[in-house]
């Protein structure tokens, strides 16, 4: 039942990206693997890194995939980018990237494809400037929540707070301020022209409002 509910939480257009991405790579779509990922995003410890987040990412991908050099690889990287999410761990991206690479290798993908998808998932650590248009698009999509409407951004902040409720407020609040300030200090938050035009100003307003509240 949980798996069925997970399937229904992703819109049909989002689910279609799974099949179309594998077919574009001339590989057989693995429905069982897709269901494993959907179940992972539905894990109870998640509040933001959930099926809702995945669905929102896939929506943005549907709108912006023309910005990608290799759309199928970006789509699969989105499906896997939060596949592993342990709030107490610091290697979630690496484990998610390894899962993606292993799944592609098992399916018979070109090793270069598997390596590129691995690199795309690793880019979601947000530690370095994205390398190339596909990584730029992926990161812009992952950060699209920052430019969400005010109500959705407020919900996102509550979801992040719930995921880190185990961290004492005296530690959590200054850490959160540091993260938000790091985003505000960037010359630009979004690197793809369409997403920059749509989200840059709303994101900066959301971040500034959040920083003021944390103060």
Radius of gyration: 17 Å
Q: What separation lies between the terminal Cα atoms? A: 44 Å
The CATH architecture name of the largest domain reads Orthogonal Bundle
Query: What share of residues are in beta strands?
Result: under 5%
Q: What is the helix content?
A: 55-70%
Low-confidence stretches: 1-8
Number of domains: 2
H/I helix tally: 11
List keywords for this structure.
Hypothetical protein af1432; single chain; Metal-dependent HD superfamily phosphohydrolase; 68% helix; HD_phosphohydro; mainly alpha
What does this structure look like?
- This protein is mainly α.
- The protein has eleven helices and no strands.
- The protein is globular, with a radius of gyration of 17 Å.
- The N and C termini lie far apart (44 Å).
- The relative contact order is 0.11.
- The model is unreliable at 1-8 (pLDDT under 50).
